[in-house]
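Example S7 (structure tokens).
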């Protein structure tokens, strides 16, 4: 029996993150389960349009076709559909030639419980509650934010991250939220030589870093970037932390509070992960965005 190896990246993705299911979801919310089931069955030969995370998924799976790769990427479908209503989803997967062979159809119940048995390193969903449960289980996870951006140019996979409460713990963000910018800057300057604690996406970034190591740095099919509201002098701790983790990040942009959207469009991100909803509302106009409901900015929400 096949088991998961340490050199495999596993991404669990919901059907609504992968495909545009808004019309069928409207039928479900307005007309109920029976109407939804009938709708899906009667339309099962109609190919679904790509969803917000489709381009990311396609590029992840395309890594398996490259000659130099020594590590396998697997995408697993996680869906609230039944196997019966899910047939349309698999028909669409086949139409687009996506190499997705494993799936869990939970028949209306939350499919989250299947994420851990699949050994998922990343979980992408449109359900905030399932995403929070994944983060509580120490699985990198994000809520895919609605967007008109469903495709990106080029073949290179480009993944962008926010810093505090995403790649790093939210300790520094707490200082900023509770004591202000001056106290934050002084705290980061004093702790510049002390690496930060890892946040919910540290493990995922580490796996991506190891995937990148299969190719020379100047011709890797994967490129990563950090887009943070930090500025000097708070930049130094970020650089020293990544150095201490022995993790490469290809680009780092210290924005000093500037809006991230246009910068992410310049980078050409296939996905951007951020913990703050207001940032996500801005960036989703430019790139596919995943909200990470973690840390002080999401407490009480």
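Recovered sequence:
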């Amino acid at each position: 029996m096949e088991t998961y190896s340490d050199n495999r990246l596993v991404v669990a993705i919901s059907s609504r993150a992968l495909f545009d299911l808004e019309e069928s979801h409207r039928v479900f919310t307005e007309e109920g389960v029976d109407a939804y089931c009938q709708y899906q069955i009667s339309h099962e030969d109609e190919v679904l349009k790509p969803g917000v995370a489709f381009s990311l998924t396609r590029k992840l799976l395309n890594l398996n076709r490259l000659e130099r790769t020594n590590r396998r990427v697997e995408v697993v479908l996680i869906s609230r559909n039944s196997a019966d209503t899910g047939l349309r989803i698999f028909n669409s997967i086949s139409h687009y030639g996506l190499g997705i062979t494993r799936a869990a159809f939970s028949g209306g119940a939350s499919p989250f419980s299947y994420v851990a048995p699949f050994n998922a390193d990343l979980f992408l969903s449109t359900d905030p509650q399932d995403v929070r449960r994944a983060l509580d289980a120490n699985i990198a996870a994000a809520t895919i934010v609605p967007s008109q951006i469903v495709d990106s140019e080029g073949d290179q996979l480009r993944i962008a991250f926010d810093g505090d409460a995403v790649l790093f713990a939210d300790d520094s963000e707490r200082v900023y939220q509770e004591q202000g910018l001056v106290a934050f800057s002084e705290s980061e300057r004093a702790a510049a030589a002390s690496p930060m604690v890892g946040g919910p996406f540290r493990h995922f970034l580490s796996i991506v870093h190891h995937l990148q190591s299969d190719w020379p740095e100047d011709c890797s099919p994967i490129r990563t970037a950090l887009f943070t509201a930090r500025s000097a002098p708070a930049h130094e701790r970020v650089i020293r932390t990544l150095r201490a983790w022995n993790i490469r990040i290809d680009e780092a942009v210290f924005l000093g509070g500037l809006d991230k959207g246009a910068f992410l469009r310049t980078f050409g991100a296939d996905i951007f992960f951020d913990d703050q909803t207001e940032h996500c509302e801005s960036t989703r106009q430019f790139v596919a965005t995943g909200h990470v409901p973690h840390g002080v900015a999401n407490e009480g929400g």
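Notes on this example. Residues 157-298 form a domain with the Rossmann fold fold (CATH 3.40.50.1000).
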